[in-house]
Amino acid sequence: MNSATKELEKYHLYSQAKSFLGREFMLWLWKHIEDAPVHDIEGKQVEIWLQDKVNYTNPNRHKGVTKMAIQGEESASNEISRLALKLGMQPSEYRIGMRINGQTEMVFSMTPSLSIKSWKLSIHDEISDDDKTMEEFDYMVLTDDVITSLFDTFLQKKSGTDFLPEVSKWIRSR
Question: Is residue 100 part of a domain?
Answer without folding.
Answer: yes
